[in-house]
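User: My collaborator sent over this chain with a note saying "see what the structure looks like." That's all I know about it. Can you take a look?
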Amino acid sequence: MPIRLGFVPLNDCAPVIVARERGLFERHGLRVRLSRELGWATVRDKLAQGELDAAHAPCGLPLVLAAGLQCVPTDTVAGMILNLEGNAITLGQNLWDAGVRDAATLRAYILQNRGRRVLTFGTVSSNSSHSHLLRTWLNSGGGAVDHEVRLAVVPPPQMQANLAAGHLDGFCAGEPWNSHAVSEGSGWIAATSRTVAPGHPEKALVARADFARRRSEEHVALMAALLEACKWCAEPANHEELASMLADRRHVGVAAPLIRHGLSGPLPRGCGLPPIPGGTCIFSGPWVHEPSQDRAAWIASNLLDPSLRSAFPAERLAQIFQGDCHRAALALSEQPHPALSSRETNTLPA
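Assistant: Without extra context I'll predict from the sequence alone. Here is the result:
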Protein backbone atom coordinates (compact mmCIF):
# COMPACT_ATOMS: atom_id res chain seq x y z
CA MET A 1 0.00 0.00 0.00
CA PRO A 2 1.46 3.40 -0.93
CA ILE A 3 2.12 6.00 1.73
CA ARG A 4 -0.42 8.81 1.37
CA LEU A 5 1.61 11.99 1.85
CA GLY A 6 -0.03 15.43 1.84
CA PHE A 7 1.47 18.83 1.06
CA VAL A 8 0.30 22.40 0.60
CA PRO A 9 1.62 24.50 -2.33
CA LEU A 10 4.43 26.52 -0.76
CA ASN A 11 8.16 26.80 -1.34
CA ASP A 12 8.77 24.78 1.81
CA CYS A 13 7.00 21.73 0.38
CA ALA A 14 10.16 21.44 -1.76
CA PRO A 15 11.66 18.41 0.06
CA VAL A 16 8.49 16.40 -0.60
CA ILE A 17 8.51 17.27 -4.30
CA VAL A 18 12.26 16.71 -4.70
CA ALA A 19 12.09 13.31 -3.00
CA ARG A 20 9.48 12.23 -5.52
CA GLU A 21 10.91 13.89 -8.64
CA ARG A 22 14.48 12.74 -8.01
CA GLY A 23 13.52 9.20 -7.08
CA LEU A 24 14.56 9.34 -3.43
CA PHE A 25 11.42 7.59 -2.22
CA GLU A 26 12.03 4.73 -4.64
CA ARG A 27 15.68 4.48 -3.61
CA HIS A 28 14.46 3.78 -0.10
CA GLY A 29 12.01 1.14 -1.32
CA LEU A 30 8.93 3.30 -0.80
CA ARG A 31 5.75 3.76 -2.78
CA VAL A 32 4.43 7.25 -2.06
CA ARG A 33 1.28 8.91 -3.37
CA LEU A 34 1.34 12.69 -3.05
CA SER A 35 -1.84 14.63 -2.32
CA ARG A 36 -1.87 18.38 -3.03
CA GLU A 37 -4.10 20.12 -0.46
CA LEU A 38 -5.46 23.67 -0.49
CA GLY A 39 -4.65 24.53 3.12
CA TRP A 40 -3.91 23.30 6.62
CA ALA A 41 -7.51 22.70 7.66
CA THR A 42 -7.76 20.08 4.93
CA VAL A 43 -4.48 18.49 6.01
CA ARG A 44 -5.70 18.45 9.62
CA ASP A 45 -9.01 16.82 8.69
CA LYS A 46 -7.46 14.22 6.38
CA LEU A 47 -4.91 13.20 9.00
CA ALA A 48 -7.65 12.98 11.63
CA GLN A 49 -9.88 10.91 9.34
CA GLY A 50 -7.08 8.61 8.19
CA GLU A 51 -7.17 9.80 4.58
CA LEU A 52 -3.49 10.76 4.85
CA ASP A 53 -0.72 8.80 6.54
CA ALA A 54 1.60 11.78 6.86
CA ALA A 55 1.98 15.36 5.66
CA HIS A 56 4.20 18.40 5.29
CA ALA A 57 2.60 20.53 8.01
CA PRO A 58 3.08 23.45 10.42
CA CYS A 59 4.89 22.46 13.60
CA GLY A 60 1.84 23.36 15.68
CA LEU A 61 -0.46 20.93 13.87
CA PRO A 62 0.43 17.82 15.95
CA LEU A 63 -0.71 19.71 19.07
CA VAL A 64 -3.91 20.85 17.34
CA LEU A 65 -4.66 17.23 16.42
CA ALA A 66 -3.83 15.93 19.90
CA ALA A 67 -6.10 18.54 21.50
CA GLY A 68 -8.91 17.83 19.03
CA LEU A 69 -9.24 21.47 17.97
CA GLN A 70 -11.99 21.46 15.31
CA CYS A 71 -11.30 17.76 14.69
CA VAL A 72 -11.44 14.37 16.34
CA PRO A 73 -8.52 14.03 18.81
CA THR A 74 -5.78 12.26 16.88
CA ASP A 75 -2.35 11.05 17.95
CA THR A 76 0.45 12.01 15.59
CA VAL A 77 4.24 12.11 15.72
CA ALA A 78 6.68 14.66 14.32
CA GLY A 79 9.93 12.82 13.71
CA MET A 80 11.70 15.62 11.85
CA ILE A 81 11.58 19.34 11.25
CA LEU A 82 11.53 20.03 7.49
CA ASN A 83 12.69 23.65 7.56
CA LEU A 84 13.27 26.74 9.65
CA GLU A 85 11.86 30.22 8.91
CA GLY A 86 10.32 30.82 5.47
CA ASN A 87 7.45 33.27 6.10
CA ALA A 88 6.90 36.95 5.42
CA ILE A 89 4.40 39.63 6.40
CA THR A 90 2.86 41.43 3.44
CA LEU A 91 0.74 44.56 3.77
CA GLY A 92 -1.72 45.94 1.25
CA GLN A 93 -1.00 48.81 -1.10
CA ASN A 94 -3.79 50.71 0.67
CA LEU A 95 -1.71 50.87 3.84
CA TRP A 96 1.35 52.08 1.97
CA ASP A 97 -0.77 54.82 0.38
CA ALA A 98 -1.95 55.77 3.88
CA GLY A 99 1.65 56.32 5.03
CA VAL A 100 2.36 52.99 6.72
CA ARG A 101 6.04 52.03 6.41
CA ASP A 102 6.73 49.73 9.38
CA ALA A 103 5.21 48.37 12.60
CA ALA A 104 5.40 51.74 14.35
CA THR A 105 3.53 53.64 11.62
CA LEU A 106 1.01 50.78 11.34
CA ARG A 107 0.36 51.01 15.08
CA ALA A 108 -0.23 54.75 14.73
CA TYR A 109 -2.65 54.11 11.84
CA ILE A 110 -4.55 51.48 13.85
CA LEU A 111 -4.93 53.77 16.86
CA GLN A 112 -5.93 56.77 14.72
CA ASN A 113 -8.71 54.68 13.16
CA ARG A 114 -9.91 53.03 16.36
CA GLY A 115 -13.71 52.91 16.36
CA ARG A 116 -13.90 53.62 12.62
CA ARG A 117 -12.13 50.70 10.99
CA VAL A 118 -10.75 47.34 12.08
CA LEU A 119 -7.94 45.97 9.94
CA THR A 120 -8.08 42.32 8.89
CA PHE A 121 -4.95 40.22 8.47
CA GLY A 122 -4.75 36.78 6.96
CA THR A 123 -3.02 33.90 8.72
CA VAL A 124 -2.85 30.33 7.49
CA SER A 125 -3.80 28.81 10.87
CA SER A 126 -4.65 30.02 14.35
CA ASN A 127 -1.99 27.71 15.81
CA SER A 128 0.91 28.24 13.46
CA SER A 129 4.03 30.38 13.44
CA HIS A 130 2.19 32.82 11.16
CA SER A 131 -0.19 34.01 13.87
CA HIS A 132 2.71 34.28 16.31
CA LEU A 133 4.81 36.24 13.81
CA LEU A 134 1.94 38.60 13.00
CA ARG A 135 1.18 39.36 16.64
CA THR A 136 4.85 39.76 17.54
CA TRP A 137 5.50 42.12 14.65
CA LEU A 138 2.33 44.15 15.23
CA ASN A 139 3.33 44.69 18.86
CA SER A 140 6.93 45.60 17.99
CA GLY A 141 5.82 49.07 16.93
CA GLY A 142 5.73 50.48 20.45
CA GLY A 143 2.82 48.79 22.23
CA ALA A 144 0.31 45.95 22.07
CA VAL A 145 -2.15 46.41 19.22
CA ASP A 146 -2.74 42.78 18.18
CA HIS A 147 -6.07 42.88 20.04
CA GLU A 148 -7.13 45.85 17.87
CA VAL A 149 -7.08 43.86 14.60
CA ARG A 150 -8.94 40.85 13.23
CA LEU A 151 -7.09 37.69 12.18
CA ALA A 152 -8.77 35.56 9.51
CA VAL A 153 -7.66 32.04 8.54
CA VAL A 154 -7.07 31.88 4.79
CA PRO A 155 -5.34 29.10 2.76
CA PRO A 156 -1.92 30.26 1.50
CA PRO A 157 -2.78 30.15 -2.23
CA GLN A 158 -5.77 32.46 -1.62
CA MET A 159 -3.92 35.22 0.23
CA GLN A 160 -3.01 37.38 -2.76
CA ALA A 161 -6.50 37.29 -4.29
CA ASN A 162 -8.08 38.30 -0.97
CA LEU A 163 -5.54 41.10 -0.53
CA ALA A 164 -6.19 42.39 -4.05
CA ALA A 165 -9.95 42.25 -3.51
CA GLY A 166 -9.69 44.29 -0.31
CA HIS A 167 -10.87 41.49 1.97
CA LEU A 168 -7.50 41.54 3.73
CA ASP A 169 -5.26 44.46 4.72
CA GLY A 170 -2.24 42.19 4.98
CA PHE A 171 -1.20 38.62 5.65
CA CYS A 172 1.54 36.33 6.89
CA ALA A 173 2.32 33.33 4.71
CA GLY A 174 5.17 31.38 3.24
CA GLU A 175 6.66 32.00 -0.15
CA PRO A 176 5.86 32.32 -3.01
CA TRP A 177 2.61 34.00 -2.00
CA ASN A 178 4.30 37.18 -0.72
CA SER A 179 6.28 37.50 -3.95
CA HIS A 180 3.05 36.87 -5.86
CA ALA A 181 1.36 39.83 -4.13
CA VAL A 182 4.34 42.07 -4.82
CA SER A 183 4.44 41.05 -8.50
CA GLU A 184 0.71 41.79 -8.85
CA GLY A 185 1.11 45.21 -7.24
CA SER A 186 -1.36 44.45 -4.46
CA GLY A 187 1.09 44.37 -1.58
CA TRP A 188 4.58 44.99 -0.19
CA ILE A 189 6.71 42.96 2.19
CA ALA A 190 7.11 44.56 5.61
CA ALA A 191 9.03 41.82 7.46
CA THR A 192 10.22 38.23 7.26
CA SER A 193 10.58 35.35 9.72
CA ARG A 194 14.28 36.11 9.96
CA THR A 195 13.65 39.58 11.35
CA VAL A 196 10.81 38.62 13.72
CA ALA A 197 11.73 35.14 15.06
CA PRO A 198 15.12 34.05 13.68
CA GLY A 199 15.57 30.29 13.39
CA HIS A 200 12.02 29.36 14.37
CA PRO A 201 10.85 25.83 13.46
CA GLU A 202 8.35 26.06 10.62
CA LYS A 203 7.21 22.81 8.97
CA ALA A 204 7.52 19.23 10.17
CA LEU A 205 6.78 15.81 8.79
CA VAL A 206 3.64 14.93 10.77
CA ALA A 207 2.54 11.29 10.66
CA ARG A 208 -0.38 9.49 12.23
CA ALA A 209 0.87 7.59 15.27
CA ASP A 210 -0.77 4.36 14.12
CA PHE A 211 1.05 4.59 10.77
CA ALA A 212 4.38 5.32 12.47
CA ARG A 213 3.85 2.36 14.77
CA ARG A 214 2.53 -0.25 12.29
CA ARG A 215 4.83 0.76 9.43
CA SER A 216 7.81 1.95 11.42
CA GLU A 217 10.43 0.95 8.83
CA GLU A 218 8.61 2.88 6.12
CA HIS A 219 8.20 5.85 8.42
CA VAL A 220 11.94 5.99 9.08
CA ALA A 221 12.71 5.48 5.38
CA LEU A 222 10.31 8.28 4.49
CA MET A 223 12.18 10.67 6.78
CA ALA A 224 15.54 9.47 5.44
CA ALA A 225 14.45 10.26 1.89
CA LEU A 226 13.26 13.71 2.99
CA LEU A 227 16.52 14.40 4.81
CA GLU A 228 18.39 13.72 1.57
CA ALA A 229 15.93 15.93 -0.32
CA CYS A 230 16.45 18.76 2.20
CA LYS A 231 20.21 18.70 1.58
CA TRP A 232 19.59 18.94 -2.17
CA CYS A 233 17.15 21.83 -1.68
CA ALA A 234 19.70 23.76 0.38
CA GLU A 235 22.27 23.86 -2.42
CA PRO A 236 22.07 27.18 -4.33
CA ALA A 237 23.31 25.42 -7.49
CA ASN A 238 20.05 23.42 -7.50
CA HIS A 239 17.65 26.32 -7.11
CA GLU A 240 17.01 26.90 -10.80
CA GLU A 241 15.96 23.28 -11.22
CA LEU A 242 14.03 23.35 -7.95
CA ALA A 243 12.09 26.47 -8.98
CA SER A 244 11.10 24.73 -12.22
CA MET A 245 9.93 21.65 -10.30
CA LEU A 246 7.80 23.70 -7.93
CA ALA A 247 6.36 25.80 -10.75
CA ASP A 248 4.60 22.71 -12.14
CA ARG A 249 0.81 22.94 -11.71
CA ARG A 250 0.83 19.65 -9.80
CA HIS A 251 3.02 21.27 -7.16
CA VAL A 252 2.96 25.02 -6.39
CA GLY A 253 1.84 26.28 -9.79
CA VAL A 254 3.40 29.76 -9.71
CA ALA A 255 5.94 31.11 -12.22
CA ALA A 256 9.47 29.86 -11.53
CA PRO A 257 11.03 33.36 -11.17
CA LEU A 258 8.63 34.16 -8.29
CA ILE A 259 9.50 30.89 -6.59
CA ARG A 260 13.20 31.55 -7.07
CA HIS A 261 12.95 34.82 -5.08
CA GLY A 262 12.17 32.87 -1.92
CA LEU A 263 14.76 30.17 -2.57
CA SER A 264 17.88 32.18 -3.34
CA GLY A 265 16.86 35.82 -3.08
CA PRO A 266 16.94 38.65 -3.42
CA LEU A 267 13.32 38.95 -2.28
CA PRO A 268 11.65 42.02 -3.85
CA ARG A 269 9.64 43.99 -1.31
CA GLY A 270 7.70 46.31 -3.62
CA CYS A 271 7.00 50.05 -3.34
CA GLY A 272 10.62 50.91 -4.13
CA LEU A 273 11.97 49.26 -0.97
CA PRO A 274 15.38 47.58 -1.17
CA PRO A 275 15.11 43.82 -1.75
CA ILE A 276 16.00 41.35 0.99
CA PRO A 277 19.14 39.32 0.21
CA GLY A 278 19.18 35.53 0.49
CA GLY A 279 16.38 33.00 0.56
CA THR A 280 13.63 32.77 3.17
CA CYS A 281 13.85 29.04 4.06
CA ILE A 282 16.56 27.13 5.88
CA PHE A 283 16.33 23.59 4.50
CA SER A 284 19.47 22.02 5.92
CA GLY A 285 22.32 22.48 8.37
CA PRO A 286 23.41 21.41 11.85
CA TRP A 287 20.41 20.71 14.11
CA VAL A 288 17.87 22.02 11.56
CA HIS A 289 15.85 18.79 11.53
CA GLU A 290 16.09 17.76 15.19
CA PRO A 291 12.61 17.75 16.86
CA SER A 292 14.25 18.64 20.15
CA GLN A 293 12.43 19.22 23.40
CA ASP A 294 13.52 22.86 23.39
CA ARG A 295 11.80 23.29 20.03
CA ALA A 296 8.74 21.38 21.21
CA ALA A 297 8.50 23.69 24.24
CA TRP A 298 8.83 26.77 21.99
CA ILE A 299 6.05 25.47 19.75
CA ALA A 300 3.71 24.79 22.69
CA SER A 301 4.50 28.14 24.35
CA ASN A 302 4.14 30.31 21.27
CA LEU A 303 1.67 28.58 18.95
CA LEU A 304 -0.98 27.34 21.37
CA ASP A 305 -3.60 29.31 23.25
CA PRO A 306 -2.46 29.73 26.87
CA SER A 307 -5.48 27.73 28.07
CA LEU A 308 -4.17 24.65 26.26
CA ARG A 309 -0.51 24.76 27.24
CA SER A 310 -0.95 22.88 30.51
CA ALA A 311 -2.23 19.89 28.51
CA PHE A 312 1.23 19.46 27.00
CA PRO A 313 3.83 18.86 29.71
CA ALA A 314 7.32 17.81 28.66
CA GLU A 315 6.44 14.11 28.79
CA ARG A 316 3.58 14.49 26.34
CA LEU A 317 5.61 16.71 24.02
CA ALA A 318 8.31 14.02 23.94
CA GLN A 319 5.72 11.50 22.77
CA ILE A 320 4.87 13.78 19.82
CA PHE A 321 8.23 15.30 18.87
CA GLN A 322 10.30 12.13 18.69
CA GLY A 323 14.04 12.58 18.54
CA ASP A 324 14.66 8.83 18.30
CA CYS A 325 12.77 8.72 15.01
CA HIS A 326 14.96 11.52 13.69
CA ARG A 327 18.16 9.79 14.76
CA ALA A 328 17.11 6.53 13.08
CA ALA A 329 16.28 8.38 9.86
CA LEU A 330 19.56 10.30 9.97
CA ALA A 331 21.53 7.06 10.32
CA LEU A 332 19.61 5.50 7.41
CA SER A 333 20.09 8.55 5.19
CA GLU A 334 23.85 8.29 5.64
CA GLN A 335 23.98 4.67 4.44
CA PRO A 336 24.90 4.07 0.79
CA HIS A 337 22.09 2.83 -1.44
CA PRO A 338 21.87 1.99 -5.14
CA ALA A 339 21.46 5.06 -7.34
CA LEU A 340 18.63 5.13 -9.81
CA SER A 341 19.61 5.42 -13.43
CA SER A 342 18.75 8.66 -15.22
CA ARG A 343 16.19 6.73 -17.24
CA GLU A 344 14.43 5.50 -14.07
CA THR A 345 14.49 8.96 -12.54
CA ASN A 346 12.94 10.50 -15.63
CA THR A 347 10.11 7.97 -15.78
CA LEU A 348 8.91 8.05 -12.18
CA PRO A 349 5.11 7.98 -11.82
CA ALA A 350 3.30 11.27 -11.19
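A starting point for your reply to your collaborator: Residues 216-234 form the longest helix (19 residues).
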